[in-house]
Specification:
Layout: E1 6-7, E2 16-17, H1 20-46, E3 49-56, E4 65-72, H2 77-104, H3 111-141, H4 156-192
Antiparallel strand pairs: 1-2, 3-4
GO cellular component, one term: plasma membrane
Subunit structure: Homodimer and heterodimers.
Organism: Coptis chinensis
Length: 193
Amino acid sequence: MDGVERTESGRTGGAKVANPSTADKTIFILSFLAIITSLVVIIVLAVSKQTKSIGYYQDAYLPPILIVATARWQYLSGLVFLMVSNVIAFVYATISLSISLAYQTGQKGFGLTLIVLDLMIMALWFSASGAAIDVFVLAYNGNSKAGWNKTCTGFGYICGLVISSIVVSMIGSLIFLVLIVVTIVGLNKRSLS
């Protein structure tokens, strides 16, 4: 439990291996952080909505027509993909943590399966973050060739929430990457012992 090396068989002449409880604690902490980051992204995206009155000028001599516009995360497919992938990652990380705790108590055979599933979730999370970044860059800069104006100049609040959720989602993806590396190293150490 203290992370010190011990002998494999308890004798003084046995091979020294690292204490597996240190790796298990690291996996538990990383899984818990993955759950928290995905939950934060879900909450931040769920509340991202902004309504604004925009003046539309038809003629220089007429008063502007006020149009009420609402921006929501559901209106952009990249953000929907980000939300769905974070919900999947949240559910998976919760189930994975439960399985890891069961595996820790003696059930064997789940290590390689969890690594493969972690890789799939990490790939999904990275691709969703990339799609959301693409949507955000388009909303922030616009596209003059397509005639799309900058959206973030008028809807700054929702753009701030979206970029925050993208950053937290990227952090969650990196946590999954570290989780995979720690799990592989832990399985490698266990197979050598």
